[in-house]
Specification:
Structural class: alpha/beta
Strand order of the largest sheet: 2-1-3-8-5-9-7-6
Order of helices and strands: EHEHHEEHEEEEHHHEEH
Shape: globular
Number of helices: 8
Length: about 250
């Protein structure tokens, strides 16, 4: 930043073939005067995948009824590599996906606020949580922003702040891989990473770009057994989330 050293490195997750996305986000960040680096993600359709050995397809089919696509596995692997970078370099990161836009003023306010963030706020989503039936509690008052704790995750990875401590927790608890990366990150009762966001959110999806992830095609209707197992898994997740939130609020 022009008026001092930024307490976090800004990186943009992209695929090498996504030239138009790279040009657009580079123009936006350069115009805002925000230094950044590109981070080359794992192309699920073309690249070897470092999380393939951790992927439990049987469990995935049992709890969701359909496999993760190669694109979803590539997306997970890309963020996994970012977590490794964060931990190995012992460096706070702000991660943006290459198909976002942002409010320049609020982005700069957040960057200046990073030293004021509570230590336990190791992962902070930078966009509005639009999931249904979630509650948000003020966790800290910052200069120009509010830090929130969510009772239900926002189901996206388009922009987030990450500390080495949170990155280590994400890495340690990821095996087996059977959920998409955003849902995995939202399971704070399991990975022990506090689910936080900011208000107002300042990162938004640019709808001129379609997702490059690609999802598994639905080839047939779910059987009654698969449907029951899926509902049981969802119920179990809700119970664990509820119990964790009750314990957290009682502290």
């Amino acid at each position: 930043m022009p008026d001092g050293i930024c307490p976090a490195k800004v990186i943009v997750l992209t695929l090498e073939r996504a030239k138009a996305r790279q040009a657009r986000i580079k123009s936006l960040l350069d115009s805002a005067g925000i230094p950044f680096e590109f981070f080359w993600g794992v192309d699920g359709q073309r690249d070897p995948n470092p999380i393939e050995p951790f992927y439990d397809e049987k469990k995935r089919l049992r709890v969701k009824g359909a496999p993760l696509s190669q694109g979803q596995l590539g997306c997970f692997a890309s963020h996994y590599r970012i977590w490794q970078k964060c931990l190995q370099e012992n460096q706070n990161l702000v991660i943006l996906e290459d198909d976002v836009i942002f409010d320049e003023g609020l982005f700069k306010i957040f960057l200046k606020n990073i030293p004021e963030l509570p230590q336990e706020a190791g992962c902070v989503r930078l966009f509005e949580n639009k999931t249904r039936n979630h509650k948000a509690f003020e966790y800290a008052q910052l200069k120009g922003l509010r830090l929130l704790r969510y009772t239900k995750g926002p189901m996206s990875t388009m922009g987030y702040y990450l500390t080495p401590g949170a990155a280590e927790k994400f890495i340690e608890s990821l095996r087996p891989v059977f959920l998409s990366v955003d849902i995995y990150m939202d399971r704070y009762w399991s990975n022990k990473v506090l689910c936080c966001g900011v208000e107002p959110g300042f990162v938004y999806h640019d709808h001129q770009f379609e997702s490059m992830i690609g999802y598994a095609e639905k080839t047939q209707r779910r059987t009654i057994v698969v449907t029951i197992l899926r509902e049981l898994f969802t119920l179990g997740e809700r119970i664990q989330r509820y119990v964790y939130n009750r314990k957290f609020r009682s502290k």
